[in-house]
Fold each of these.
Amino acid sequence: MADDPSPTLDTLLQEGRSFPPPPDFAARANCRDPEVYARAEADPEAWWASWAEKLQWDRPWDTICKWTPPRARWFLGGRLNASVQCLDRHVEAGHGTRTAFLWEGEPGDTRRLSYEEMLRETCRIANALKELGIGRGDRVTLYMPMVPELAMTVLACARIGAIFSVVFAGFSAASLRDRIQDQEARLLVTADGCWRRGRVLDLKAVADEAVAECPSVEKVLVLRRGQGVETASAGSARDVAWEEIVPRQAPECPPESMEAEDPLFILYTSGTTGKPKGIWHCTGGYMTGVYATSQLVFDLKPEEDVFWCTADIGWITGHSYIVFGPMANGVTQVMYEGAPNHPGPDRFWEIVEKYGVTVFYTAPTAIRAFMKWGDEHPAGHDLSSLRLLGTVGEPINPEAWIWYHQHIGGGRCPIVDTWWQTETGGIMITPLPGLTETVPGSATLPFPGVGAAVVDEAGKEVETGGGYLVLTRPWPHMLRGIWGDPERYEATYWKRFPGRYFPGDGARRDERGRFWILGRVDDVMNVSGHRLSTMEIESALVDHPAVAEAAVIGVHHELKGQAPVGFVILRQGFEPGEELAQELIQHVGRLIGGLARPERILFTPELPKTRSGKIMRRLLRDIAEGRVLGDVTTLADPGVLDQLARMARERESEEA
Ligand code: WTA
């Protein structure tokens, strides 16, 4: 992009344009009333309660919010079931025949499922889970492809009060094992395989390897993905075939009446240590938040819209904006199993055209890839059904924003750049598409009722300028904790700026109060919109017999946003070389999953450390990105730097 800036793009960026909501969009938007911000701000609890009231409760709450920092509990005394919000409610209201999912498998196989069918299948699965001895409070791990059964199994767990935990199918056996062990799951639900770029991933074989070290797992329920998918797994007595237990169940299953604060799910995400955190969310507050944000941010109109969120259900985006938020709103959605460039680089646009997608939500990393693949791919399809676009997962560079606006949105669709995290459960900083003027690169304003600020090192609020992003008051869909580790919850999010939630991001506020998210300020990287911990990758490298010490940093990457680079000190007797570098990269892939594989390995005799022994990551980043070195006075042995910088240069000239 940098070498060949298209003149129009360049001009647009220089203009520093802002984009008011298009009048015809604003006129019909779910949220048209600018007073909404002031109203929510005046009484945030009443605001959130007004959304909770739109859900179907078995018993109303007595107290809206009990805030005993750093713990918040919402809708105390209230009881409800999450699956009822997503299924029964719509069927009972006479919308059972409305399409819930238009599913597209990677090889091109398709399915259309109505809300009625989703309810029946969910109940069958729920009954099967019960037959397998699963009940309220039990943990169930899901390691599945992007098929409708994944959404149904999530809802089936919610229906019987089991706590589900989805592990993205790209994670390794070791990662799956660690997560199952951490939550002591009794059941694993998996499949024989899934499609990825024309290849079948043998999920069952990976699951077998993981479960071999998981004594808590009593049964493994195995779905057949069909269409030429075949596992090499030998099978075991623990296995239960989906087709033997699910189809014969009754299609009704009474929902468990859950307390608002009962856990709904656990989802693991990377933190600053080597061990992923099991973030857990509750039932009432979470459902309230994802319901409200889906309706206002994506402007969902169940009668008309076809919503497509391209995330995998293995990430929080898929939990909140495929399963719970949009389904609670009763909207029709596209679900796609495969990669954006398989079989061709226009796959997404073909799907948008085929199903008449109206609201489209994806990640900046995907947008940058589309830009690189060429304008002709979206141009070759009719994208006129689109009326609103969204992004999530990482800061969006203005070039990508403008390209998205022009080439996908046809210059007419508002773009919502949504900032949030696994921990926040739902969108926190975002434009409201019918109200907010947008500027490329800014997530703009806190969602109504959300308190956000930028503070300096000392915690003092910065009105205009840069600093740390904090959230200043509780919200219903906030995480309730880290599974099995209450202290870590407090230490991670609430210690840095007491009384305020610290998400780990840097941010800037402009003169108009808009937020510009600058990215992580901790040892977490954002690779293609996926969170990775430097420590986790370092541990994986050090696990290899050749490695004595390793430091991993995230360096700027044109497509992925950031990419991991590993600096490695070898043990005696091992020689640096391309072959070993490749082996180490593969080793990380095997231990964590393909998404964590370092982009490059640089062998080094030493690592730059402060006098107190801390690795100077900032310096490593400067070296890897070829920048001039900053302040190095705290460095123990400055000679190390010359050597590292020289190596990085040599490396680059070799590649060039
Ligand atoms: C980053 C994904 C800039 C941020 C929903 C955050 C963003 C982390 C944005 C959470 C955005 C997410 N602009 N940065 N619009 N959205 N991030 O938990 O660093 O996978 O802390 O949740 O992604 O990643 P997570």
Amino acid sequence: MNKNVLITGGSRGIGAATARYLAGQGYHLCLNYRHDKASADALVAEIQEQHSVTCIAVQADVSVEEEVVRLFEEMDARLGCITHLVNNAGILQPQMRVLEMSAERINKTLITNVTSYFLCCREAVRRMTGGGAIVNVSSAAARLGSAGEYVDYAASKGAIDVLIKGLSLEVAAQGIRVNGVRPGFIYTDMHTDGGEPGRVDRIKSQIPLQRGGQPTEVAAAIAWLLSDEASYATGTFIDVAGGR
Ligand code: NAP
């Protein structure tokens, strides 16, 4: 049976590294992105040149329910039924204390980082009638809290951890596994959105392994949890945060 994976936010960063990794394992891929069509198209071209798999890119804002429904319908039509899902799209907003946060900012973080994961899980589970696997990308922030930087983001990732636990129990008897990866301090553009492009290098001396992580190191953990090698793992997490 074909392995058809949807990676939300698959155009850049950890999502793009995961796409490359899974293409090498023979998955057919649907790469979702929000704005950056050029990066998504370039990655599709690269993967199709290097691997014998089908790879498509679909624009959709996964924080909007109608767009999630359209994304899955487009994947059904162009790639085939989903067997694996990587919920990865997420945002970080500029660093500030909780005392300064507006409701608009908090809601934007929660809708983009949490509601989108719920909606994509819903659409995937509806289609995974023969079983399947879901990996939700959470964050070490869910354990650490991100004080003085973005507690709203950390809270959104805490909600993801609870989604993983609860949904894994709801769908285990259907042969669907739901797990999480909690990266921390990975070199991607996300830290620029958070207002500090050099954040990983500033923090790295406080990380037990004394360095930031690469997106490929997160991709490997995602790929293992998706794979049949993880067939008895559900409702669980891999921390990829250099020991923090
Ligand atoms: P990134 O480099 O900023 O890439 C974010 C990706 O998400 C892009 O493909 C972006 O699409 C997409 N995206 C954002 N909002 C979207 C929306 N509403 N609908 C559809 N796509 C959307 O981020 P990253 O660092 O790879 O992060 C990926 C995941 O890892 C996130 O969930 C993040 O919270 C988590 N994480 C990252 C780190 C880290 O240190 N980097 C640590 C812990 C957890 P466009 O390119 O079109 O904008």
